[in-house]
Amino acid sequence: MNIHNPSKQIYRILLVLFVGIAVFAALKNWFMPTADMPMVSYPVKSYNNFLIFKYSFKHIISESPLYLWNKDECYDLFKYTPTFALFFGLFSWGGDFVGLLLWSLINSLLPFYAILKLVGTIRQRIFGFSILLMGESLTSLLNSQSNGVILGLMILSLASFQKGRDYSAVSYILMCAFIKVFGILLFALYWFRREKLKQVVPFAFLLGLVLLLLPVLLVDFDYLKEQYYSWINLLSRDSSRFVKYSVMGWIQNWFHFVPNKLILLSIGLILQFLFVFTSKNPSKTEIIQWGALWLVWSVIFNHMAESAIFVIAIGGMMVYGLLQPQLSKADYFIWLLVIFFTILGPTDIYPVSWRIWIVESAQLKVFPVMLFWIYATYTLNLTGIKKAA
After folding, report:
1. What confidence score (pLDDT) does residue 1 get?
2. In the 3-class helix/strand/coil scheme, how is the chain assigned residue by residue?
């Protein structure tokens, strides 16, 4: 077996491994000891996020408030859309373990499926990059988060855009946005396909309206409207509380000051959009690589980014790397930093004191990803400038 010449056998092995980490994560979450948390009188289960999602479905079908914390059920608030609460009914009918296992499987397998849908990837790199993605996926799976589904939908939107399947691309973008709003960033791809906007915009509007109102199939319209108001209010109150693993967190920890969020975000957007102005006639591959950098951007410029969300950034880096004609020494160096600090930093491979220093004190979980984004952005812009000269 030669991993430098991927075959169906390699893909079967990867499929087994992606299933394996999902099953492992579900079992570990199920059997892990509970933890004592503030403001609740009961031990909190390690798959608490899954329970938050599960109870959101029960709340929406009973027309109970979605965004009030019921401390008798689980720890923390539900912060997703009513549409996502309805969607989670797929995982809420059986027992907790069955739902948790299915949820883990879809979060593990959807990104792998999406990556195989991309065109023009360097197939010899899929095995190695997939192993790295598994390492980061495990962190997200052990938090029973939705980040694998989001990553899968974002990559599927890139693959559909790449093939000219605009309705599919828009559908995946909107499905992602109705889980976490930042998925809508991928509409930026249509800067390079502006001739399609006349058909894309009406379709996006209609599908967005359908997704917005989908819960009306089961609930009263006035109740749904009230939940959207509550959701928007929750996000507006929640947006400025914490600074975690992000560009802002790195600046705060390394230079001991907190930059203005609006200014920092504006600088990040300007740098991300430079490619639009430096590339006169970008190839399809370069456009998709730019799209992949939006996945990275959405994580590192999210000042509230937690460790579990970094699977989205690693997935974006993977897509970029699979489409890169040749990896440079700088690419290999940055990926080594990513392996040792971003992927392995929060794991038991390091003592607890080291993990705290790597992830929080030194912000070394985000730093290699920042380096990658800066270097990849520079490389794409330089390529565009050279082609235009």
Report:
1. 40
2. CCCCCCCHHHHHHHHHHHHHHHHHHHHHHHHCCCECCCCCCCCECCCHHHHHHHHHHHHHHCCCCCCCCCCCCCCCCCCCCHHHHHHHHHHCCCCHHHHHHHHHHHHHHHHHHHHHCCCCCCHHHHHHHHHHHHHHHHHHHCCCCCHHHHHHHHHHHHHHHHCCCHHHHHHHHHHHHCCCHHHHHHHHHHHHHHHHHHHHHHHHHHHHHHHHHHHHHCCCHHHHHHHHHHHHHHHHHHCCCCCCCCHHHHHHHHHCCCCCHHHHHHHHHHHHHHHHHHCCCCCHHHHHHHHHHHHHHHHHCCCCCCHHHHHHHHHHHHHHHHHCCCCCHHHHHHHHHHHHHHHCCCCCCCCHHHHHHHHHHCCCCCHHHHHHHHHHHHHHHHHHHHHHC
